[in-house]
Write a structure and sequence with these properties.
There is one protein chain. With about 180 residues, this protein is mainly α. It is built from seven helices and two strands. Strands 1-2 form a two-stranded antiparallel sheet. A hairpin with a 2-residue loop joins β1 and β2. It is globular, with a radius of gyration of 17 Å.
């Protein structure tokens, strides 16, 4: 597989994981997952991690996976690259895993004394990737093993932080985010 195909496969396969946190922000609010509980003197997760946002993000990512599956053959033909379709367990795994990765990062941020929205370089860009890949391999091991080969994972680990920083800078410039990270 050439470099373009590896990068295209990585970005395509991760799209259901790229969308959930954005959907969660749009649909968020409501009851915090941690119910206001603390560990020591800090919240477990904080007000930014809600049940509604987690559900909305998971549903959005799963719906995107199903939509991508429907158009994968046509897009593959158009680009001349073989792009994967998503079995339902893979779509759910990527979307839910992205949300769980972000929730885990929130927990680590609180433990390190960082406030909600504070930067945590590296973790901020890859938390959802780790969660998405872990759940994809758990929910759809055959599909994940065929799709996320070592070169594809390497491409995801390089491209995702660039996409993350770029899209966050744009959202900040448009006034959609309070921080540029």
């Amino acid at each position: 597989m050439d470099l373009l195909a590896v990068v295209a496969t990585g970005v395509w396969a991760m799209l259901p994981a790229y969308v959930p946190n954005n959907a969660a922000v749009l649909a968020g609010g409501g009851r915090p997952i941690d119910g206001g509980r603390t560990l020591g003197d800090a919240r477990l997760l904080g007000d930014g991690k809600t049940w509604r946002g987690t559900l909305a993000g998971t549903l959005a990512g799963t719906a995107l996976a199903l939509a991508l599956s429907a158009v994968a053959p046509a897009v593959s033909d158009l680009l001349g690259l073989p792009l994967p379709s998503f079995p339902l367990p893979a779509g759910v795994g990527l979307a839910l895993g992205a949300m769980l990765g972000d929730i885990g990062a929130s927990f680590l941020k609180r433990r390190s004394g960082r406030e909600r929205g504070a930067a945590f370089p590296g973790l901020d860009q890859l938390d959802f990737v780790v969660g998405a890949l872990a759940c994809a391999f758990l929910f759809a091991p055959g599909w994940a093993g065929e799709t996320f080969t070592l070169p594809v994972v390497a491409a995801v680990l390089v491209v995702t932080p660039l996409l993350h920083v770029g899209t966050n800078a744009i959202a900040y410039a448009l006034g959609l985010k309070d921080e540029p990270w």
